[in-house]
Here is the input.
Amino acid sequence: MSQPLPPPIDPRIARLIRPDVQSMHAYVVQDAAGFVKLDAMENPYRLSPELQARLGERLGRVAINRYPGPRIDELKAALAAHAGLPAGCGLILGNGSDELISLLALACARPGATVLAPLPGFVMYAMSAQLQGLQFVGVDLTADFALDLPAMLAAIEQHQPAIIYLAYPNNPTANLWDVAAMDAIVAAAPGLVVIDEAYQPFASRNYLGGLAAHSHVVLMRTLSKFGLAGIRLGYMMGASALIAEIDKVRPPYNVSVLNAEAALFALEHADVYEAQARELREERQMLLESLAQMPGVRPFPSDANMILVRVPDAKAVFEGMKARGVLVKNISTMHPLLAQCLRLTVGNPEENARMLAALQASL
Here is the structure.
C-alpha cells in the first residue's frame, strides 16, 4: 500500500530549506509485515534463546543514565582485534556505515570537491555528496558489471576526486572487482579511496593488505551483515593521522552504550555468527545453481548475501512474488545496466525454498 502524500510545506518554511533537498525523496523501506523478507540483505538467523537471555541480562546492567564512556574504547579495541587492524592504523565508529559516509563527505567538503564511484552502486555515496555540496561523478560499469578501468582512470584524471568509493563486493551487483583494476585506481587516486566491505563476511577475499600499504586508503565495514543490522554499527579503518582528522567531525556520543554492549557480546560469540555466515554462503551456492536452471532467469556471480538476477519482466515477477508472500527488491529502474533485474537476499533454507517457488510461479 502506497504512503499518503504529506501536506504541502508552509511557504514560510519552504524558503528556508534548500531547493535540492525539497526535490529529493526520502529513503523508503518496504513494508514487510506478513512477508518472507528477502529485500534488505539481512541475516535471517536470531540468537538462540540461551544467548538472548544472556544478552538481555547484560544489557539490563548497562548504565543507560550515563553518556557512553570507556566502553566505547573497549569496543574499538575488540573490533581492531577482530578485523586484524594493521600497525599504524586507527579505527572510528559510526552509527552504521551511512554515518561514516556522511562524515567523509563533511570532512572533505571543500569548494569544488568531487566524489567518484562506479555505477550502479550504493545510493548513499551520491546522496552524501549532494547533501554536503560536493559534486558526484558516476562511472558506468561494463555490461557484465566489471570495473571499466579506462573510464575510471579517465574520470579520475578529469575530475581529480577528493573521494573515490569502491564497494567490495558491490551493491547491488554482489560481485568483487578485479584486484589489478583496484590497484590501478588506488595508484591513480589524488585523494581518498574508500573500500566499502559491508559484505565481507560472505566474500572470498578482502582488501585489508591494501590498507596497510597506502596511507590514502580507508576500509569501511559494518556489523549489519555480520548479523546485527538492528544495532546500526559501522567502523572505518585507515592511517591513524587520517582517522584522527575524520574523528573531528564525528558527533559526540554517536554510538549508544546499548549498541556498544550488544556489539561486544556479539564479538565474544563470533563463532556463532561465522557459522551463520557459512550456512548463508552454502545457501547462496544452492540458490545460484537453482536459479541457473530456471528458463529465462540469469543469475550473476555473487560474493555477498544477495544475488542479482535478470528476468523477462522484473515488475511482473516482483509483483507475482509479492502476491505469493515473498518480498524482494525490484531494482530494474535504478540504472540502465540493471534493466529487468531483481535483487534477492539469501535467506535460511525455508525462506529460500519459498523464494524459489514464488519466483518460478511468477515467471
In short: The radius of gyration is 21 Å. Residues 86 and 279 are 29 Å apart (CA to CA). The first helix runs from residue 11 to 14.
